[in-house]
Amino acid sequence: MRATLATWVVAGVCVAVHLARLLGDHAAFVDGIYAHGAWMLAHGFEPYVDFTHVALLPADLVLAAVIRVFGADARVLEVATTVVILTTGGLLALAARRVAGGLAAGITALLWCTSLWVVHFHLFERETWAALGIAAALAGYARCVPTRDGEGLAIDGRRALLIGAGLALAFSVKITSVFAAAGLCAHLLLSGRVREAWRLGVAFTLLVLALAGVHALAFGDGFVEQAFLFGFFRHGTADLATKGQWILTHGDHVLVLTAVGLVVAALRRPRGLAGAAACVFLGDLTYMLAISPTLWDHNLIPLAASGALLGGLGVAEAWRGGARWLVAAAVVAGLGVVAIVAAPALDTRPYGKPGPGFGGTPRHAIERRATFLERHSAPGSVVFCVDPWPAFLAERVTFVRYWDVQPVMVGITKSVAADGYAATFAQRGSQLVLAAGAPPPPKRVASLPAYSARLLANAIVHIRPPLLEAIAAREIALVMEPLAPLVLEPADLEAAGYERFGDLGFFGWRPVDGVVHTRVRPVYPAR
Hints:
Largest sheet: 5 strands, mixed
Distance between the termini: 64 Å
Oligomer: single chain
Radius of gyration: 24 Å
Helix content: 55-70%
Number of strands: 7
Shape: globular
Structural class: mainly alpha
Order of helices and strands: HEHHHHHHHHHHHHHHHEHEHEHHHEHEE
Strand order of the largest sheet: 4-3-5-7-6
Strand content: under 5%
């Protein structure tokens, strides 16, 4: 009875946190390119051809089906993400319960569902969906490793296929999940289970090749360039020490209790589920520290999944082992981290800081921008909007969908067409632009930090010319401010016969004579 009550209490807390987020006034409106891409899929546009897309499609197809039924609504996507988050927490709890009992399960679920970054990126974030696949793999793995009593099952071909399917699901959403798969295989090797490691590795590889093969057959070179090559051309400038400091200062209570789990995994249960979760965590951490070109908060979400499981297993083991002082100290430290990190995020002023936890952009601010687009452009028309989220809510096609993605992809596509894959790949260390014969960027761009300079230079070289052509041909019905600096200037719009106007507190540009030549389907500028 007590166990059942505790289960319902934990489940209630997990649901309540995300229900409060769902009903709240603020949300993290980031990475709108993926929401907009799902909307385009729902309306028959072809990925990798009509619009850029730097991942595989399974999650996007699910969201496209949801959009077909319920329309382009941010809260609909948020409900779908909530289901994913709670399902992930349930899978992690099941894994912990099998090997360490109800205490570990409850702590694991609470850690995952209250992680500040999971709560913050509650609207829609691909890493959250990738964590679902990792949790499914760990839940399957829990059936194959020794429990506290020494009971366990070997990984036969069928179980390897099921665990590999979870990892392949994570890979299909975010290809860097290959490091989680490597972590599980490494745990099997370190445990002396070479045959099982071979089975899991083969199962995962075959499933990934099947997924990639279906995409390649359906979409050709565009898929290969966007889903795989793109990752090699996004260079950051942060060194190992900077990344390590960033993770420590941007972490939350999950990472505090993860440390307890790492100690338990190393000293008490290296061959059990704690050891497996530690290998997955360290695999993702290796990517973050040694390979990842960027320092973005949502990249911590996969770490929160394996870290929550580690924390739950570690705390339960320490509690049973008599080290309750360690548990108490870890909990106090975790609460302290929450207080320090989350406090600024509770700012709910109209344009409060977009921090972790419940921070973010007011929903009405994005909705009003979408209303502006709807009022001043016809359905089916092409608009220019730096932020994809208002375009998604207004159900409008944007000429340039995301400054961090499309310009680089245009450069890669042009370079592959002109020079081939080998020469293009050899350019991955270049500081600024891709593609042979590209004009040099302005000096003002070269003086920026390398990562920002590279992105902006590609935008100027590869996006500005077709953007100006489209404006001159009146193929863009509405240009919404802010404009992209150095890529589109007021003088460019005035020369093309556009006028500036204001409405609802926003400003935009439209043709003076009102004549627009609407494109039925957008043309990906690289094609």
